[in-house]
Every structure is written in C-alpha cells, then in structure tokens.
C-alpha cells in the first residue's frame, strides 16, 4: 500500500499518527460491535441465526479486545510489538470467522453475509495497521 494512499485514508502524512488512527478506528468499530452483541444479543441472534449465548461471549471478548486496542491507540508511539499482536489477532479473527461459517455455524442468509463482511472488515483493519506500521518503522 503506497504512502500516499495511507496518508489519504488516515488524513495525515505522519506514519505514527496513521498507526494510531487505524488502531482507534478498529477499537471504535470492534467495541461498538461487542457492545451491540452484549446489549441486544437476543434480537441480533435471531436476525443472524446465531446463538444468543455465543453472541454474549463474543461481546465480552470484543469489548475487552477493543479496550486494549484503544489503549494502544492512545499511546503517543504505540509499541510495534503491540500493533503486530493486534494485526495477527485481526487476521486470526477473519480466518476463524470464515472457518466457523463453513464448519459449524448455521446462520440465516443475513448472518452469513454479516460474517463474511465483518471478516473482510477485520482483515482490512489488519492490512491498514500493518502498512502504517511498516511506514512508521522506515
């Protein structure tokens, strides 16, 4: 990913700011998703065709993960090891989402579309974060 494209996406030419902004965006989206699963697990579960209990467990995990990512984003210079851990966790989440969809989930059509969309979004965060980290370490 080019430096120009990253700068346009993050609205800054400062590589460390890019890393922080992409981490912050990840934290907001992940935290919002986690809170929605916690607060509305019943209706969301029915709509997606996913067990309410699973959504509550995912909500707890996502909310905690988002808090950690937000903490990293709040650092003036997020540690590279922490950012790499977030990137790897995001890639693992995206892969496991697809595996779960194929192997054991039986969602509604909306649930299948949602699962693939969120897997793509999380993989996109990983790509943006990794690219920004590479630019920052040059």
Low-confidence stretches: none
User: Percentage of helical residues?
Assistant: over 70%
Q: How many angstroms does the end-to-end distance come to?
A: 14 Å
The biggest sheet, with number of strands, parallel, antiparallel or mixed sense and barrel status, is: none
The helix/strand series, from N terminus to C terminus, equals HHHHHH
Task: Map the helices and strands.
Blueprint: H1 3-10, H2 15-39, H3 41-48, H4 52-74, H5 80-103, H6 109-136
Helix pairs in contact: 2-4, 2-6, 3-4, 5-6
What does this structure look like?
With 138 residues, the protein is mainly α. Helix content is 84%, strand content 0%. The protein has six helices and no strands. The mean pLDDT is 91.
Which descriptors would you attach to this protein?
single chain, 138 residues, mainly alpha, 6 helices, elongated
Summarize the structure.
The chain has six helices and no strands. The protein has helices spanning 3-10, 15-39, 41-48, 52-74, 80-103, 109-136. It starts with a helix and ends with a helix.
